[in-house]
Amino acid sequence: MTVRFKQFPGVSLSEEEFRDGKVLYQMDELKAEYAWDTGIAIGTYLAGLKRGVILGVRCSHCRKVVVPPRTVCEWCFRPMDEYVELPDTGTVNTFSLCYITWDMRRISQPEIPAVIHIDGTSELGPASVVMGGILHKLGEVDPNEVHIGMRVQAVWKPESERTGAITDILYFKPIR
Amino acid sequence: MTFLERDAHAPQAWFGSLPAAHRYTYGLTGERFFRALKDEGKILGSYCPKCDHTYVPATVFCERCLGELTDWRDMGLVGELHTFTVLYVDYEGRPLEKPQVVGLVSFGDGGIVHFLNADPETLIIGMPMRAVLKPPAERQGSILDIQYFEPVQEA
To answer: Rounded to an integer, what distance in angstroms lies between the CA atom of residue A42 and that of residue B145?
Structure first.
């Protein structure tokens, strides 16, 4: 039905119109606090990050190593509880150059989210489906030089500032 | 460590909050209604001549015949108490020190839900209630520009 409309009636509002009181409005903020139970595997993972280690978990049955840890092997459904300390290096599996922030502001220097295949984790066959991929950001890198397969290393926060969060890793930077 | 055991050093939960601030604009009709309340201290309704129905707060079309309503009317500040209730707990569920009275005050064929400044024992359904507005300088174009309704005092 909307195809019939070439031009929609109405006008968009500018920030000035709000500021100068040209349009009436209500401002409100929802109280949207939450607590997410980390569970056993992710809790251990976060505790590992606090001491500067990326923890993976090995399945004693099928020998796969995955990160982030989980308590049940997704492939053979057996319990996984053998934590392994992984190096903080890896390979860019996929990435994106984002010129818009999460709250829709334009930025001139892109943020670069990437899935990083951590060294020492399993690969599912020759295809680049990895089991040790963690989503993080890339830094200290020219956006034009980012490529799939680039070797990267984690840049950590100073130990005193770490809180047991994925942001204890600031970003991954290329290994030169 | 077995897979059922928690790491004693691990965080039990991840705490966060979602930034969900929002700005609500009233639209063309609401803008006119609240503008009149803010600048002129008036409660506006709109009248449908076809259905003989007066909408308060004003609407821009008739819900019954879907016709456009152009006859906007000043409804005055005195309405009739349609119904009321007494609140003993606040928004968060905590007991209130002083119970709060809220009610629906009817104007035309509609009405406004608001706070009532009165002892609930003295309230009678159907009694006239007057809107007490904030001083003009403090009004912001909100339903809270009406502070509360109170019974009309017999002179």
So the answer is: 50
Give tens-digit pLDDT for B94-144.
999 999 999 999 999 999 999 999 999 999 999 999 999 999 999 999 999
- Name the residue in chain B with its Cα closest to that of A163: B11
pLDDT digits (tens, 9 = 90+) for A17-36: 888 888 899 988 888 899 99
CA A37 to chain centre: 19
Q: What is the DSSP string of A112-174?
A: EEEEEEETT--B-SSSS-BSSEEEEEE-SS-GGG--TT-EEEEEEPPGGG--SSGGGEEEEEE
Coil, helix or strand for B39? Answer: helix
Model pLDDT, residue A81? 80
Q: What is the phi/psi pair of residue A103, to 5°?
A: -105, 30
Per-residue pLDDT tens digits for A48-62:
999 999 999 999 888
As a whole number of Å, the CA-based R_g of chain A is 22
Global ipTM? 0.73
> Residue A96 has which token pair?
């994106």
Place of tokens 């809180």: A163
- What does each C-alpha distance from B69 to A7, A69, B73 come to in angstroms? 24, 63, 11
**To the nearest whole angstrom, how far is the Cα of B68 from the nearest Cα of chain A?**
17
Q: What is the pLDDT of residues A116-150, one digit of tens each?
A: 999 988 876 555 456 678 999 999 999 999 999 99
Burial of B95 (0-12, 13-18, 19+ CB in 10 A): exposed
Name which of A18, A23, A24 to mutate to probe chain B: the one with the most chain B Cβ atoms within 10 A of its Cβ: A24
Angle at B10 between CA B4 and CA B13, to 5 degrees: 90
Nearest-neighbour CA in chain A from B133: distance (Å): 18
